[in-house]
Amino acid sequence: MSSFSFELLAGDGAARTGILHTGRGDVRTPAFMPVGTVGSVKAMLPQSVRETGADIILGNTYHLMLRPGAERVARLGGLHKFCGWERPILTDSGGFQVMSLSKLRKITDEGVHFQSHIDGASHFLSPERAMEIQRLLGSDIQMVLDECPAFGGTEDVIERSLALSMRWASRSRQAFGEQPGTGCFGIVQGGTFPHLRERSAAALKEIGFHGYAVGGLAVGESQSMMFQTLEFTVPHLPADRPRYLMGVGKPDDIVGGVLRGIDMFDCVLPTRSGRNAQAFTWDGTINLRNARHAEDPGPLDPDCRCPACRQFSRAYLHHAVKAGEIIASMLLTWHNLTFYQDLMAGLRSAIARGDVQAFAQAFKARYGSRSTVDDSQS
Amino acid sequence: MSSFSFELLAGDGAARTGILHTGRGDVRTPAFMPVGTVGSVKAMLPQSVRETGADIILGNTYHLMLRPGAERVARLGGLHKFCGWERPILTDSGGFQVMSLSKLRKITDEGVHFQSHIDGASHFLSPERAMEIQRLLGSDIQMVLDECPAFGGTEDVIERSLALSMRWASRSRQAFGEQPGTGCFGIVQGGTFPHLRERSAAALKEIGFHGYAVGGLAVGESQSMMFQTLEFTVPHLPADRPRYLMGVGKPDDIVGGVLRGIDMFDCVLPTRSGRNAQAFTWDGTINLRNARHAEDPGPLDPDCRCPACRQFSRAYLHHAVKAGEIIASMLLTWHNLTFYQDLMAGLRSAIARGDVQAFAQAFKARYGSRSTVDDSQS
Fold first, then answer.
1. Do A82 and B316 touch (CB under 8 A)?
2. Sheet containing B103-107: order of strands
């Protein structure tokens, strides 16, 4: 089994491209990780996810610990075998979903007591248990347990939460120990306060992780505030370790994140949108429910290599959406994941060529969404 | 384009195997046609349907005339291009669904006035319009419009309905005209009354069709009554034309139908069951929702070649069903259609070898369901 390491291939401004080596294979960065919440990237077979170009998927510890349960997955041979995906899997710690989905949470220094959103059963998640679950699942990249404060907290609230998260990070790292081929990532918190982000990064570096995530973003703040936060946070992270922006995001968020030195992303947007008639294209987003597609014989995106675009018309996709056919979710999810992976491939190539700013500007001009290019850097 | 013709390869008792040649390719018989109600075999991509072994699929005229509409499909290049299936498609006439799904039906000799179950809009379906719709869709096998009386009608009711259906059959056949490579099938009605079935078959033969369907079964009668009806109906059908048992059925219904000389079948059972956690195996049906599968590392069916059985455990399928994941519908539909196609392939081989009775008895012994072997013939 190859050891867990990060190989930087090229840089372009703050952006970089590289390869994350894991015991279950390589991940080309910048990477987008499709979300396989409960052991399935929704509406996709694993081989189809791979065909989109994904090197790694994400599993949610919170969901998997509740159903089917970590010990059960371990008895069945681990998450990879269970869900039919033999390449790398990153698991979150469960903290974010505990905060957002569960009922009757009670947080102490020891951990979090909560009730399942499925059946109300009582559960306990500590840093040690979060790491144990991820080890039982057989995750290749395991995230520390952290507290995820709501957006808009006062400095005092964020500071106290950060202190707890850093104590949990230390305990998580200790519980992780050493697992050949597998990495443990810390998570920088600190809201939108520069000195707290710096303090968090320093504490995590002191502990020492295989990679560093930026948490507490994509929780309701503006894109410019997210980008600002990256600008004053990323420079405090070790250059030789992968950087992961959790839960992000829209295509233009990702382009902006890459320009600011982020290597890894995950988001439910391409899959969730695919189940909701929304398609991403190089010319912006399209709602297939719209009646203007009803007689359009053309493809969703003429530049796309996915089955939805190669084999079907917009008229068919519109019809399938309107009729509530499962194939609409299948095809639009496949398309959206292909778009995201092609975007990442385009970014990787542009960085390697040294013209990622031009790529980002061309993307912005055509995609036509919110600002994706960092004007402050040009 | 090759002409529409039926080539008998071998017979074994009443059972036979052959090839139905159409302008869009061959159909090996006995054949099972997956149902693609509104332009999609639910939860399957067209290439996956083909991978199960299907030579032909069925489209529902009623659903397609309401949404997206036959003229629209024609403008978009026909149903095959629209739904991404280039092989043969059989369409029903819409009559059955008009009777079972629509609102405020009014039947006259001219045709049926009804309201859409989707939006209440008024529509009219006559024999001529039913054939026009099927021609607009580009169907390879077009069914005559008939009236489908409810199960349990008195002889008088069935006889009057039959008379109407035969007048409609004549008008349907005339409206079909001649379409190279395409076939028009008549539908034998007459309930469970031998003399009415015989009269219906004679009337249809007099008109002359490319194939003959047995309608008005699988509407609530017992399996033995269905088999009896086949026994006194099939001998009145031309031996050199394909025979199609509409809307049937369970695996053991199909085995019994083949033993009685049926060549073609369609049913929503494998697809609908697949979306409802039910799997067909050689050892009978399995409900994946059952907790006994929760930790079963074995495949759904060790003898099956489908992705559900090759790549996943029963434990995973159980989990996906419980979690409401779309992949459960995708995998179980794929499995069920594979099972049905493998059953048809087994029947075809057995007939060619001349031991279809042994095949049917072995199937019954293992599948363990209702009687599938015609004891009256052994």
1. yes
2. B103-107, B112-115, B122-125
